[in-house]
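Re: that backbone. C-alpha cells:
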C-alpha cells in the first residue's frame, strides 16, 4: 500500500505559515516540522507502507482551497496531497 506525504521546502516555510488557517497548530520552524516529518515517514515505512514524498506547491494549494471553498488547514492539505499522483 502507498501513501502520499506532504513535503514543504525550507525556503517556503515562512510563506506557508502566512497562508494557512491553522497556524496555531503548526510548528514554528521548518526544522521542527521536518523532524516530525521524518519520524512520521519512518513510522509509515516501518509499518510496510510505501511513502511518496509530495512537494507541495503553495500556489497550487491556495488555488485548490479557493476552487473548492476550503480552509487551508491540515485536513485540506492532507486531502490535497492524497490526490496527487
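Recovered sequence:
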Amino acid at each position: 500500500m502507498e501513501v502520499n506525504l506532504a513535503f514543504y521546502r525550507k525556503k517556503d516555510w515562512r510563506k506557508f505559515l502566512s497562508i494557512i488557517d491553522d497556524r496555531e497548530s503548526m510548528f514554528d520552524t521548518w526544522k521542527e516540522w521536518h523532524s516530525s516529518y521524518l519520524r512520521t515517514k519512518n513510522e509509515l515505512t516501518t509499518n510496510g507502507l510505501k511513502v511518496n514524498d509530495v512537494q507541495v506547491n503553495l500556489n497550487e494549494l491556495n488555488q485548490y482551497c479557493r476552487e473548492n471553498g476550503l480552509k487551508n488547514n491540515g485536513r485540506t492539505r492532507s486531502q490535497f496531497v492524497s490526490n496527487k499522483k
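The beta strands are 2-7, 50-55. The longest strand covers residues 2-7.
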